Amino acid sequence: MSETTTRPAPGSHFADPAALGLGGFALTTFVLSVVNAGMIPGKVEPVVFGLAFAYGGIAQFAAGLWEFAKGNTFGATAFCSYGAFWLSFWWLTGHTDLSGAGADVNKGLGVYLLAWGIFTLYMTIGALRVSGAVLAVFVLLTITYFLLAFGEFGSDAAGHGVTKIGGYLGLLTAIAAWYASFATVTNSTFKRAVLPTFPL
Question: Which regions span the lipid bilayer (predicted)?
Fold first, then answer.
């Protein structure tokens, strides 16, 4: 009679990469949202570029690769995709000359943000099976993307107002993501559920 061999789950020897991915997303989103909300002048937006490249981009993308190794399709898709978003944002805003597009540049940016909103909307469906903390991030992020897109499509005055609202929603998104990252780090470090993530 043969014995049944129990194999460990894929990547079970890895630390949870979600804390890093959520942290990179939260911090970069927070800084950009402060600019979008008009709390500091838009001329200082380049302070986001380094974060978008290193923390929101590379670190978050790396977290997504570790999620692939752990067999987590949702986490891998989310972190690699938003890592790529921040890298594309870094390239688009810091290294692409859009001056020749004139007023049409806003339409292009609007489509760019709208497409990310659509992606985030269907990822929100998957988040329904993750946790309440992660679901809150995706619901807020979906609304943020759509508001920022509509802000780009709108006229100067109206669009600016919608963008500011999107900036404030972005701040709430960052806080939610920071909480989810904080809970993941804390619960892992203390080896018990210190902070609730509200499993679904």
Answer: 20-40, 46-66, 73-91, 111-128, 135-153, 165-185
* Helix or strand (DSSP H, E) at 29: helix 18-36
Distance CA 119, CA 146 (A): 11
Annotate 84-115 with b (16+ C-beta within 10 A) or e (fewer).
ebbbebbeebeeeeeeeeeeeebeebbebbbe
Q: Which domain holds residue 156?
A: 18-94+104-189
Q: Is the dihedral of CA 59, 174, 169, 136 positive or negative?
A: positive
Residue 200, in any domain of the structure: no
Nearest CA to 137 out of 146, 147, 127 is that of: 127
Give a yes or no: residue 197 inside a domain.
Answer: no
Q: What is the pLDDT of residue 1?
A: 45
Cα dihedral 163, 165, 171, 175 in deg (nearest 10): -140
Residue 9 lies in a domain: no
Structural domains counted in the chain: 1
Task: For the chain, 200 residues long, give each residue's pLDDT as a single digit of tens.
Answer: 445 566 666 666 789 999 999 999 999 999 999 999 999 987 888 899 999 999 999 999 999 999 999 999 999 999 999 999 999 999 988 888 877 777 788 899 999 999 999 999 999 999 999 999 999 999 999 999 999 999 999 878 788 899 999 999 999 999 999 999 999 999 999 999 999 999 98
Cα three-residue angle 159-85-87, rounded to 5 degrees: 115
